[in-house]
Amino acid sequence: MATSSLTPSQALLARAISHHVSAQSSDQHRLSPATTLSLPSLSGLKSTTSVFSSSSRRRRLPHARSQSQVRAAAVETLDATAETSLVEKSVNTIRFLAIDAVEKANSGHPGLPMGCAPMGHILYDEVMRYNPKNPYWFNRDRFVLSAGHGCMLQYALLHLAGYDSVLEEDLKQFRQWGSRTPGHPENFETPGVEVTTGPLGQGIANAVGLALAEKHLAARYNKPDAEIIDHYTYVILGDGCQMEGISNEVSSLAGHWGLGKLIAFYDDNHISIDGDTEIAFTEDVGPRFESLGWHVIWVKNGNTGYDDIRAAIKEAKAVKDKPTLIKVTTTIGYGSPNKANSYSVHGSALGAKEVEATRKNLAWPYEPFHVPEDVKKHWSRHVPKGASLEAEWNAKFAEYEKKYPEEAAELKCIITGELPAGWEKALPTYTPESPADATRNLSQQNLNALVKVLPGLLGGSADLASSNMTLLKMFGDFQKDTPEERNVRFGVREHGMGAISNGIALHSPGLVPYCATFFVFTDYMRAAIRISALCEAGVIYVMTHDSIGLGEDGPTHQPIEHLASFRAMPNILMLRPADGNETAGAYKVAVLNRKRPSILALSRQKLPQLPGTSIEGVEKGGYIVSDNSSGNKPDIILIGTGSELPIAAEAAKALQKEGKAVRVVSLVSWELFEEQSDAYKESVLPAAVTVRVSIEAGSTFGWEKIVGSKGKAIGIDRFGASAPAGKIYKEFGLTAEAVIEAAKELS
Amino acid sequence: MATSSLTPSQALLARAISHHVSAQSSDQHRLSPATTLSLPSLSGLKSTTSVFSSSSRRRRLPHARSQSQVRAAAVETLDATAETSLVEKSVNTIRFLAIDAVEKANSGHPGLPMGCAPMGHILYDEVMRYNPKNPYWFNRDRFVLSAGHGCMLQYALLHLAGYDSVLEEDLKQFRQWGSRTPGHPENFETPGVEVTTGPLGQGIANAVGLALAEKHLAARYNKPDAEIIDHYTYVILGDGCQMEGISNEVSSLAGHWGLGKLIAFYDDNHISIDGDTEIAFTEDVGPRFESLGWHVIWVKNGNTGYDDIRAAIKEAKAVKDKPTLIKVTTTIGYGSPNKANSYSVHGSALGAKEVEATRKNLAWPYEPFHVPEDVKKHWSRHVPKGASLEAEWNAKFAEYEKKYPEEAAELKCIITGELPAGWEKALPTYTPESPADATRNLSQQNLNALVKVLPGLLGGSADLASSNMTLLKMFGDFQKDTPEERNVRFGVREHGMGAISNGIALHSPGLVPYCATFFVFTDYMRAAIRISALCEAGVIYVMTHDSIGLGEDGPTHQPIEHLASFRAMPNILMLRPADGNETAGAYKVAVLNRKRPSILALSRQKLPQLPGTSIEGVEKGGYIVSDNSSGNKPDIILIGTGSELPIAAEAAKALQKEGKAVRVVSLVSWELFEEQSDAYKESVLPAAVTVRVSIEAGSTFGWEKIVGSKGKAIGIDRFGASAPAGKIYKEFGLTAEAVIEAAKELS
């Protein structure tokens, strides 16, 4: 897949830490002196729309930090930065860039950008702190368009703000092959886009993860004399996001955690694809969010009420202990005389005639894709301003590094994604004499060993910490008043958990989030896991109770098709370790793969420590665990994964006693094995050996590839059952005897 | 899988319609004369705990229907039916049956049954209308234990009420192989259990579906002089269900639809597996439900406040236009002196010592599994009472049938699941000359044809009706005030939609719910789809935009691994039709499979009507579409599904022109093909022919089984891209040229 050639960590190493800003900062064009406190705006244009004087603002922000004077002056001002007429012109520029791009592609969603252009303008032009020339600057404000179908809003804003990723030609290539402006926002295609959205509700969840990361890192690394982590997370979500259950899950958590620097704009436009939201969505969103612990503000005129939007943001920032929902009532497709406020403007191009009518209606005389000079000039200050913001921060960080070298070194790891040297030495190893144990317990040993060496490791479970064995014993719970801790309590909210973890992973390359539930409940969070894979978020999914081996809970809790279903998913690692060494290997792989999520399927039941297993073997995905053949010519190959590998090993012993040359292969990760050289693969599974039997307590779907048409796959192609685990294994024929019988039949 | 030998339709045919109740009704033991209005209770025991006189009750029910006098007298009374001491004894019986069963199994969840026993007792003993000897009686009240891990509560209640499915020996076999008392409630194992729960949040969603079905059928079939459909749906959900996003989705819909006969008990016990809910769940649930349009009542003492529970139910019934949430604050593990109110009683046996302490604490002198005689005697009235209720209803139905023969015939189809004779003649057919069309449009033709002949067909989309093409043109929207209509507007709530559809399907064997979204968003609802498959709910999943063929929306919207992921799932039909005839065939299969859900993967893009496709072919899962070979010995077999079948056909033509003997096979459903005889399979895919090329716009995972190790599977093993569909097909190599090249390479 085409991806940005700039990895976040490269960008950070190249730009954020050792960035030379002299070129940009020497360009003083429209850049207010950073130390001047009294300037009401950055633009240099006369402000007539200021709603709060600087002093009244100070009063309304009782918790204003003494360290943030520069910051307050440079950014926290919500005074308009331009004449209202210019603001309107800028807003209409955003609208028409969206209209024109959708029209040219004849595909896309113009309605949301047209309605949300005012809040978009205020956010990117007046409120947010970012550096267009380094989209990965660590302390930037994060913006998430949860209503991702409206991506032309974000592309237009990135374009105006001066991001290199969205030039005019990119806008003209909207939704075309190989462009940087795909049909929904994709962080891996477009620097400046923080996360991948489109599937509704994911974005608000990612935003909760971003805000969690900020709160957590700020608590860990800020010092009374050095507030080096301090940014907001802004998100726009629509009616569709609101209807999705995931948004309620994560909003409940955001309220619980008191994520005061999360500010969500709810684009309340009363239209969804099927028409008026009245047909399916009549709940009262404001009180719902209040009941979830949010501060709620209603901007009744989101179309032209610029000052109301500004005031709302100001109020939101003043509320430090709660996230804020700003319900902004807008008109979808604002400006279109015949299609505004209707579903027809939601997901289709306006059509030439209506574009013309809209141009007339909004008095827009320009050619398609044209940005008027005064608008361009007005926005041009963001490049030097961004450079200056980053330079200031870099200076601050340099000072921090001097005073707090240890913390700075740790934080650098988190910022750059560089793993501390020798981290992998912390991984536990085992011998066949080590006590038998469930891989979920072995997983906990790994987590607790790794957390000592990985400053970015944090995570938790969806209310199954004591079953998933995911508690970090050195740490307490990440909570509203203890945000520096690393055990995250997600509650029974698997979907939200996955998507929040994506947000954490995408906040900083060195954050390594893990999350946990029973393997079968990946069904609840599959949409989030898929986005981990797509958006290159190296989340570690700790999935225990990975088969009928969980026993009595029965078929609702017993995964069957899940291994196959993830093996079929692109860009993900499905790992099913068999014992201690393989669990350590799985963690090594998972930690190293920062752009590919890993799912660790772990047993509830005890498993022996097998001779022949190794971390190195796991890294190859498939390898020989035992073998009494020579010349790469075994009579029989037995292949197993996870809790069935010992069954294969037991069967092999019996067959070897009968004089057979038997090889046992652990196929712990199909994806990693697939990536090995043909020679290596042949050395493990020689093509000439067709007597192959596999055993795995899951669907046999896909195993033909491994055992071949002459082999046999032993597995489970029905739902499970409620009974003690041993009984189910026997009844389902997952036994060494069955392996032996199959091998003999094939021989 | 072991299932109940009684299918619902058999049971209904055998019992409900022509049930002879004389045997039971001649047993007048504790049975109040059905025509007597004034009796305050059915038990014959003196009532001392009546909270409302019969007359005050009448006043407080302003909308009380004139037809329901007998019903009101027989059931709506919420006067206690026994002395409080006997109620307490019954409640403790429930507690100890749960304690003893979990103890014997040394596995399970005693905490919830111990806390919820009072509300359970009141529901099953005082409130609900059911017939223990016919668990499938059509007009029964439905009960759903959404907190399914507490299933011993329901088993104990079914046992006391006289259901044959839960005898003492079944309780003793709790969680054992082959028992009727599995680890979570499973409708297919235990008659009397309505749905399959355990995965949290599913049950409340199923309950919304059950209540929707009641409201819909009542609106369609009740007459001013014959209210033949009139039951409540009760559900108990816990903190875990509340945290799951799906519960917010469906609760929002229940409020929107005004499902007044849905009464949910929220077991507010402040404990989840990880400990106090304070660590992850501090939202205010009551106001949240009010904002969703529910009536909310709080019973502060759910442990012993019997009258409060009774009063709450009474109040809930009086609110006709809103569903009611009764928040019942309970103590988890009530009665256990050392473990009550702690997570340790949530999911583990108490242990012998604590069982003993609890026996002492609750003054329970009995042996394990003992039901005291007076409790047994008290509950014994439910068998004759249930028989009587059903007999009354049967009489009422007989009268209805005389007056409204057409409606009665239709309703019988819905009750029994018998499909109207000749229904399949309504399926449209096509010739190669029929215009090319997207299978999503052809799907709509089928839906609109079928709805004319299938009285139980109803459904809708998750806010994509105009994209999924699922509107039934003859009907309006199912809404609060138009519940007789059949287009259900689910909003953007895929997960809730699936689980609500499960509830609809399990309400009556003849209800045929369909639901729709983009195929990729099955990820949002996979947990519900899996439960469709497990609980044998024949939901039809209409999944459009089934590949990269959707084009510009890009990788977040393009399914890749989804076909494979469902082919690996047990008891489900994954169908991917290629044109009009195949779409009709897919609907035929889907309608006929009432105990197996079907997923129809349908194209956004236009497809030609192919020569050789047929309904009969689809019924076999795989079949020959074209062939110029003889003697079952083609040189080459090309295999395709859905939108790639025409590509295979095009490639075949070119190869045939070059003199090759080429067969084209449509593999529209792997599951159906797998079920055919070996001879048939050999006639389609002869083992001797190894030159096989498959083409499908999805993951190649699993295709080795079909093409063999010498064949080639053309597909997509990466994420998609945002661009016009034709461009992506070409760039991804999904072309006739690629098929031809592969076939030649293999030949």
TrEMBL record, chains A, B:
Catalytic activity, as annotated: D-sedoheptulose 7-phosphate + D-glyceraldehyde 3-phosphate = aldehydo-D-ribose 5-phosphate + D-xylulose 5-phosphate
EC numbers for this chain: 2.2.1.1
Superkingdom classification of source: Eukaryota
Binding positions for thiamine diphosphate per the UniProt entry: 149, 198-200, 240, 269, 346, 521
GO CC terms of this entry: chloroplast stroma; cytosol
Gene Ontology BP term (one): pentose-phosphate shunt
Cofactor: thiamine diphosphate; Mg(2+); Co(2+)
Residue(s) at site: Important for catalytic activity: 109, 346
Pfam family, one: Transket_pyr
Database matches in NCBIfam families: tktlase_bact (TIGR00232)
Subunit record text: Homodimer.
Family under the similarity heading: Belongs to the transketolase family.
Function: Catalyzes the reversible transfer of a two-carbon ketol group from fructose-6-phosphate or sedoheptulose-7-phosphate to glyceraldehyde-3-phosphate to yield xylulose-5-phosphate and erythrose-4-phosphate or ribose-5-phosphate, respectively. Could act as a stress sensor involved in adaptation process.
Protein name: transketolase
